Structure formats: structure tokens, C-alpha cells
Amino acid sequence: MARSDFLFTSESVSEGHPDKVADRISDEIVDLFFREGEKAGLDGSQIRVAAETLVTTNRVIIAGEVRGPEISHAQIEQAARNAIKDIGYEQTGFHWDTAEIEILLHAQSADIAQGVDAAGNKDEGAGDQGIMFGYASNETADLMPAPLYYAHKILESLATARKAGEGEAIKLGPDAKSQVTVKYVGGRPIGVTQIVLSTQHVDEDLTSEDVRKIVEPYIVGALPKGWISDQTIWHVNPTGKFVIGGPDGDTGLTGRKIIVDTYGGAAPHGGGAFSGKDPTKVDRSAAYAARYLAKNVVAAGLADRVTIQLSYAIGVSEPLSIYVDAHGTAKVDEAALEDVLFKIVRLSPRGIREHLQLNRPIYARTAAYGHFGRKPDGDGGFAWEKTDLVEKLKAHFA
User: Fold this and answer.
1) Is the pLDDT of residue 113 over 70?
2) Assessment of whether the complete model's pTM goes beyond 0.90
3) Are 242 and 10 in contact (CB under 8 A)?
4) Exposed, middle or buried, 116 (CB in 10 Å: 0-12/13-18/19+)?
5) What are phi and psi of 301, to 5 degrees?
């Protein structure tokens, strides 16, 4: 039997964290290929991007393989500079205008292409083998685990205030990390026992106490009313000064924050990163599909929380397996639910791409504050967060 009373902790990192700077640049390249491909009249299904980014002191290195429209190094470089500028880096050791950018993108391997591309009677295959997980829980309005959900909200609110030049928040820098320990009673989150926030600041004279005065109102505002008590323990910039931040303080790489990107450790992760990949890479698209299915199962009231696993083989179009675990909260038979999910959404790479309309420039916005638990955008961004399968699911189990 699962424990009902416990503490659980998740962390988040801001858009200015070195790894997130790398994720953002990689996803900007994905978006660039989709935008330019549309201008060139290319079918989005023919675009391939696998872009990895490394960032360090005044240096950005972009490597990987691509296929699609003709895009110059100057366009890629400008996309990277625009991303760094939007994040807010204008410091001596990492500046959007002066950082050296090296581009090492090459054509996609023909061996990979022959397995992935549709041809004749062969449907589009998965871009790699692997296992992907989706998760949903009714403990928050957006059906996400509470510790990660609120860790994201804290950093997002601070970034919004910083960029808007709001009050004392203007003294903060782009690089930050949060961590939230949530107390569960009877399986439900009821409060926060520990809060950790480390944030870069541009004023060298600020102490940890000064920083806490700046950030505390935003942290309180991001959490549910009453979740912070006199017993809540705060750790704000516990090491003291945090002036040198971002890629000048630590090297960043694409794909190093996969638990932050998903469920904060509350659910399994297949191991594959998301950023920098077009949707033929099931590391990304099938993880989105698994979340989509899980969210709709919980939204339909068929379980209070659920984990869904999908598995794929490179070059093979249909998933090898689907597994549903409702952690003892299922209102219907889990095996029957597996059958229904397989029927109502085609889970091949093409089926996922077409159902969620993933061949669009919608990826840069996913690079920070989580790929899940977000509101669907009008232009198709975060389409995997829609709950448009609820009525179909209910009808199957009526």
C-alpha cells in the first residue's frame, strides 16, 4: 500500500540557468527550421533537427544534424543571440552581442533517414528506440505533482518581475534555482516545510537577507494560501553572494534537466531529453503523447493519478507496448484502459505528430519552467495539455 503521509521535494531551474540557456538555443533552432520550412513551401514532416548546444564563458557551440530548408549560419547565430538577449544576459562573461558562436550542424545521416522516413507502404518510423513516460495527478489544477508545479511557478514569477523591471526584482539576475518540499497528509499536499531559492543578483552588495526580502513576496504569491507557516524553513542564497551566474559561472548543455522538464521525480523518466529535437524523435513526441493520455485519464475521473509508459524501436512505426499504472486509484480496469487508449489515439510517430499538430515552431517556449502543466496556446503550443479526450474516455466506460 502506498504511503499517504510523507514529504516530497522537487526542484526547478530558471531560463537563465546554463543548461536552460542551452535548451532554449537548441529549441530556437527547431523553431527556425519549421518557420523557414513553411516559407519555402516544405512539408513539415520532412524537417529533421537534432541540435545540441554547449554554453560557457562567452562561448556557444551548436552541433548536430539537420534536414530541411537552406538556413545560413548567420540566421542560426542570430536566433541564438536573440534567445540569450531575451533571457537577459548582458554581463561581461556572457553577453548576447559579444559571445563567440560556433556552428557545427551537418546533414542528417542517410542510415537514420531510411529508417525514419515513410516510403511506399512503409509508414514513418520512430527516430530512435526508447521508453517514454507520461504522468498526471489531480493534486493541482493543471494535474501536475505539486512540488514541481510550485517550484516552476516561483521561478516564473521572479523572471516575469525581473524582465518587467518591477521594483526591487530588477536587482536579480537571470540564473536561479528553486526547491520546494511539500507535506502530504492522506495523500494530498497541504503545505510547504522547506523552501530553497538561489538567485543571481546584479547588485554585489546584497546579502542573503536582502535577497530574501526581494523574493519572499513572489514566493508567497506563487504558493497556495496557507501553505507557508511559521514552521516553514527558508534557505535563500544559502552560500551568500551569487553575482557570477549563467554560462560564465558554469557550463551548460542541452538535455541535462530532464527531471525538471517532466515531473520533478514524482514519476519515472525514460532517459531521453526533449530540447533540440523535431517530433520524429519519440523521446520528445511520445513523451508528450504519454502526458496527453495521462492528463485526459485523470481529467475524465478514471483515476486520481496515473503513469503511462510507451515504448518504441527505431524505424518501427507502432509502439511496442503501452502500460498504465493508476497507483491503486483507478476507477476502471487498467488493462481495458490500455486497450481504449491505443484505439482513440494513433500512437505512431506520424499519428502523434498529426493528432497534436507538432510540426510547428512551438518549441522554444517549452525550454524553461516545464514541458507539462502549461496552458495550451492558441497557435498550437502545448497541445498535449488539452483535455479533449475526456468525453471519448467517459463514453467508453459509461
Assistant:
1) no
2) yes
3) no
4) buried
5) 80, 15
